Amino acid sequence: MQPLPGPSLAQASQDVSYNLNGQRLGRKGRETRERIVRAAVEVLVEESDEPFTLSAVARQASLGMSSLYNYFTDLSELMAAVLDPVSASAKETWLAELACHWPDDEIAERCLRFWNLYAGFWSQNAAVLHQRNRMSDAGDERMLACRIEAGLPLMDGIATQLGRGDGTKPSDEERALASVLGTMMERTVTVQSQPNYRSYTAGSFGRGTSALGNAGSRLLALAISDWRKTGTGLR
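Now predict its structure.
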């Protein structure tokens, strides 16, 4: 079972000052809101046959629906709160790896580290992120916005690595290539983090999902190295 968000979740709750009735949240109110968000994560992590609904979360939190509605109007709003600490952990892990420009002679090493950090982030938060994507695919506009917002730093970071580190704004061509590479990463680790696919890759490749990570990071390194040398990307 995945660990539940810790300090980041508490901090996210501290950033909310009022409930939906306009009442200022005191200590008890903040604890109740955090309790609901934790219950939502628990329901997702358990991956039972029961649908992920507000009523399922209320039961997990041992609260009545009226109490839950004091804090969240619908499932989409609750999921946005669940995603807050996940986004914070992204900044501390794989996004931090993109903060500085990678030297040419370290591209392969840095790509592998970056890929592993990104895959680890997905593995740690798989239940939540898969639910976000399911809701997004089903037409939930708020979850679609969350998904796009989460993907932009990945695309921007890769686009910056394609350049020479002189602060020049990435070109349209670099953004296009970064979008393709970022989509490759996101799709691969999304599939990697599904339990049934992990068993398939173990049987097919003999090394499980690590084989996919090694292959993906190598493609990423080849693309970045080639673009820096030629300015025309993969040929």
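Residues 9-14, 200-207 have pLDDT under 50 and may be disordered.
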